[in-house]
Amino acid sequence: MLMTAPGFTAQMIVEQALKAAPGATVTDVRIGLGYAGVVVDDDRLGLAAVLRNDMEPGCTVFRRAGTLVGEKAAVLLELLSEGTTSLEKTLGLATANAILRPDPPETEEDAIDLIELTADDRVAMVGFFGPLVKRIEATGAELFILELDPRRPGFREERQHNEILESASVALVTATSLLNGTIEAILDRTSGARHVVLMGPSTPLDPLLLEETPVNHLAGSISINNGKILQVVSEGGGTPEMRPWLRYANLLTGRKKI
Questions:
Q1: Is 144 in the same domain as 236?
Q2: Could you tell me which residues come within 8 angstroms of residue 157 by beta carbon, excluding any fewer than 6 positions away?
Q3: Pick from 164, 178, 170, 184: which is nearest to 220 by CA?
Q4: What digits encode the pLDDT tens for the residues 57-104?
Q5: Of the four, 143, 176, 199, 252, which is 20 to 30 A from 128 by CA?
Q6: What CATH number is associated with residue 63?
Q7: How many domains, in total, are found in the chain?
């Protein structure tokens, strides 16, 4: 049984963003095949993943296309909590990430290094992060991948997911769980974990998430070249293609400065 109501986390993010910039305006929107990017006042760019498998067939995937630039950011923000499609939620999360964007850190820190994994750890990877698999296995930690996409490796059954999460000492949770409605069910089962990370370019770098949820580590990214990031998004690229123009940022409980 869920301890936290579905949608709680999304609503909290929306409220935080509205408080931070109640009058913000959208100045650019790009919807690619891997990510969407939203730019608001002061050239702040936010990203969120596009869940292509959830899209309906047809040549139009978003009927409000052509009306978003110049719109109040609050209108797009509400899509994160009130949207009826994953793409609407993607645009809402990208808008929130733009508003909540901190300054990029002077130097990057590695999220896996910060977790300090040992051979005693049981790691639940919620969403397949391919580049991290070998690094985690090299520490001697047990790794269990939880994945909904049948084209990717991992455990798929809900019963398996629940058992793995409840026994994990470390949970690496994809921020796309904010888009597919699974984040509350995931976090409710990580109370026994010593380290819970929300990670990926879709991650909102909002300190309140560290106070109001079991998450104690946010591992996200910040654009340092909006023009190149928007070009990559528009041309169908993903994280590897954006990487030269992203600065990875980590926000941890007890260390609020990134």
A1: yes
A2: none
A3: 178
A4: 888 888 899 999 999 999 999 999 999 999 999 999 999 999 999 999
A5: 252
A6: 3.30.390.100
A7: 2
Residue 186 CA: distances (Å) to CA of 124, 141, 143: 10, 20, 17
Same domain assignment for residues 91 and 147: no
2 in a domain, yes or no?
A: no
Find the CATH number of the domain harbouring 219: 3.40.50.11590
Two tokens, residue 236: 């169908």
Looking up tokens 């509400």 gives: 78
**pLDDT over 90 for what percent of the chain?**
82
State yes or no: pLDDT of 162 exceeds 80.
Answer: yes
Residue whose C-alpha is closest to residue 38's, from 215, 206, 230, 211: 230
Q: Is the pLDDT of residue 1 over 80?
A: no
Is the domain of 121 the same as that of 84? Answer: no
91 and 192 share one domain: no
Residues 229, 158 within the same domain: yes
- Distance separating alpha carbons of residues 128 and 55, to the nearest angstrom: 20
Amino acid 254: pLDDT? 60
Mean per-residue pLDDT of the chain: 93
Task: Give mean pLDDT, residues 209-219.
Answer: 92
3-state percent helix, strand, coil for the chain, nearest multiple of 5: 40, 20, 40
Q: 159 and 243, same structural domain?
A: yes
The 10 Å Cβ neighbour count of residue 98 is: 30
